[in-house]
Amino acid sequence: MVLDALVPAILEQKVTGKEAFASYRRLVRAYGEAAPGAEAAARRLMVAPTPEQLRSVPSWAWLQMGVDHSRSRTLMGAVRVASALERLVDVPCDEADRRLRTLPGIGIWTSAEVRARAMGDADAVSFGDYHVAKDIGWAMTGKPVDDEQLAVLLEPYRPHRLRIQVLVNQAGLRRPRRGPRMTLPNHLPTRAG
């Protein structure tokens, strides 16, 4: 359960949602298994890869799936300790946060995403997210804020700070967006010559 939440969270690090979802889709299609049942087969539903299947992914395949070296290294490090990660559901969320963040490449954002998805931690705010602080700040004060200001704004809602994040998102309360969109990078190496 924890690894099932951690893999997509790692793939979502420092990229757009569109890039992350495409990478995860490619990973599941290439290395997952068909979901059981006739209905699932008819719909081509897939089950996410197991730790053993993830270990079999060659380094070059990550690049083809749009996953840079930093994220693939983080993911493979997590796969090596998959059984220990699964035991995190039995410890308090603060302790799970501490243990997750001991893994190279796992920081405050990734830990919060995993605790929210796998453990139901109602206080796991996505600090470090490109949009979260700005959007919640705009919804609550009429202006974007940074992570430090967001922590102050959300403190009265502890231990339910994630619920505020979810409510703001579900209500569609986002700051106005202006300017050009980012172009999606290509993680494949270029050929010289």
Automatic annotation (TrEMBL):
Domain of life of the source: Bacteria
Keywords assigned: DNA damage, DNA repair
GO cellular-component term (any): cytoplasm
GO BP terms: base-excision repair, AP site formation; DNA alkylation repair
Leader sequence residues: none
GO molecular function: alkylated DNA binding; DNA-3-methyladenine glycosylase activity; DNA-7-methylguanine glycosylase activity
UniProt keyword Transmembrane helix, yes or no: no
SUPFAM superfamilies: DNA-glycosylase (SSF48150)
InterPro entries, sorted: Alkylbase_DNA_Glycosylase/TA, DNA_glycosylase
Name by which UniProt lists this protein: DNA-3-methyladenine glycosylase II
Organism of provenance: uncultured Nocardioidaceae bacterium
